[in-house]
Amino acid sequence: MSIMDELVSYASEAGAEVADTPDGHSMSWNGGLYAHHLWRTDDEWFYGYSERGRERVPTMWSPYDQLTYKWAASRIAIDARAALELPAINLPNTIETLGPEWQVGQLTLLTGCLILEGERIPAEVRAIFPQCRHLVEYSYLMRSSYDEVLESYRTSDGAPCLSSFVSW
Q1: Which of 13, 14, 63, 70 is 20 to 30 A from 78 (CA-CA)?
Q2: Of 77, 57, 46, 41, which Cα lies nearest the Cα of 156?
Q3: Along the 168 residues of the chain, how does pLDDT read in single tens digits?
Q4: Which pTM does this prediction carry?
Q5: What gap in Å lies between CA 85 and CA 101, rounded to an integer?
Q6: HSE of 113, CA atoms in CB hemisphere, 13 A
Q7: What DSSP designation does 166 have?
Q8: Cα–Cα distance measured from residue 54 to residue 4, given in angstroms and rounded to the nearest whole number
Q9: 50 and 120 in contact (C-beta within 8 Å)?
Q10: Over the Cα atoms of the chain, what is R_g?
Q11: DSSP state of 89
């Protein structure tokens, strides 16, 4: 099963309405009023959202699927965990919690990237500077493999890697 299929399956198991799109999938828990989207275009992987009647807005993209789907798992899990009546997982999101090995880079007015020990992570995230909440959250996901991230969102206690962020 591909990584995209695993994530779509997780959403489906949590009661999402899943629809195929020409280049990916959309998932919604409220009849399409708000939808999560996963897609691939020109060798780049994208996660984004849309509201009914509006175009999807990419909020994370990378040439590496696992980098994109770590972020997508965290966003989709907000709705999936609520639907499954599991406690929320709240990653730290203030710039003061960013580890010393990390830096944020502003690429455009609305996008940024993470820099780990001087090396840019090949992914872009929509971010509002200077707070960079989403980049800070993403730094916590980068510490684990995609499989561990998805498994953590699937389990009630956030194990194996996000249990310290579960809000009981």
Answers
A1: 63
A2: 77
A3: 788 899 999 999 999 999 999 899 999 999 989 999 999 999 999 999 999 989 999 999 999 999 999 999 999 999 999 999 999 999 999 999 999 999 999 999 999 999 999 999 999 999 999 999 999 999 999 989 999 999 999 999 999 999 999 997
A4: 0.94
A5: 35
A6: 14
A7: B
A8: 23
A9: no
A10: 15
A11: B
